Amino acid sequence: MVADLSYVLPFRSDGDxxxxxxxxxxxxxxxxxxxxxxxxSTDEDFARHHELWSFLTHVAxxxxxxxxxxxxxxxxxxxxxxxxxxxxxxxxxxxxxAAALSRMEQLLExxxxxxxxxxxxxxxxxxxxDTGRTLLNRSLGRDYPGTLGVRRDALVGVGGYDGDVLFENxxxxxxxxxxxxxxxSPLDLYVARIxxxxxxxxxQRVRQAYDDFSQPLRMALFLAVLPALxxxxxxxxxxxxxxxxxxxxxxAEVGRRRSGGRHMFPPVASLLAPLWVLERGVCVWIALAxxxxxxxxxxxxxxxxxxxxxxxxxxxxxxxxxxxSRL
Length: 327
What we know:
This protein has helices at about 20-30, 45-50, 70-80, 100-105, 125-140, 150-155, 170-180, 200-210, 215-235, 240-255, 270-295, 310-325; strands at about 5-10, 35-40, 55-60, 85-90, 95, 115, 115-120, 145-150, 185, 190-195, 295-300, 300-305. It is an alpha/beta fold. The strands form 3 sheets. The protein has a 7-stranded mixed sheet, with helices on both faces. A 3-stranded mixed sheet has the order 5-10-7. The chain has a two-stranded antiparallel ribbon with strand order 11-12. Helix 7 (about 170-180) crosses helix 12 (about 310-325) and helix 8 (about 200-210) crosses helix 11.
């Protein structure tokens, strides 16, 4: 077992999954870390999973955690159950190997939060399409993975984080940063991810675009994509469009080549990056309509308005908690 390491998997079944591959991974993982699955499935599915996963800690979300974003309920329950301070939080499609587990454990020695780099383990067309987003994020800074390493005490000590937001991973990162925690984002700590089904990929398009409300400059940039393209087409400025497309491909390729990424991301992903930008340029307008007309995006039956709180807002919350603790 990797020394002093807990692995928390928030989980919720749709009722018809084939769990053999996930179970095999969890069994392998259990030999290297404490594994905690926090299962928000129906009672019938929970009972089936409880028998299937008898070799690990399998619990339901604790009653005090009733945030709109169910994943946060699972994370906070898992942190409460964890026996170790070093904790990996991961979605059910994330697949660590032994080297990544070991390096994560080492990085958590000196950091309160570690943000690795996901890559798709296989390459169907929609995975390569979405990898364009990953490469652009890498070229300009850091990507947003489906897994994080965190020091439990650093997060529990500030009362957890807001679970009534859509972009819960960014909320967690900003909370640790606002509390003064050290954050490491190694671009070469690669952790595999299983691609979603095509149906799930399509369902995620607008929801992921809604996340951009948490980053206003990014949101403004993508809101400008579609109008700029329409104007260029109407004025027959094909050369400008071609220059823009080329620039996006070059930018994505810069991200692909950073920190050994050429070995993890196929070249076709850079070529597809302009299509992803166009997709996001359309979807942010739909997300904007959801916010204005409906009051937010729907995630697993819950309507959520806030994508993620700003660091300033989180800092004020932490400050008010500190003031109350001194009373």
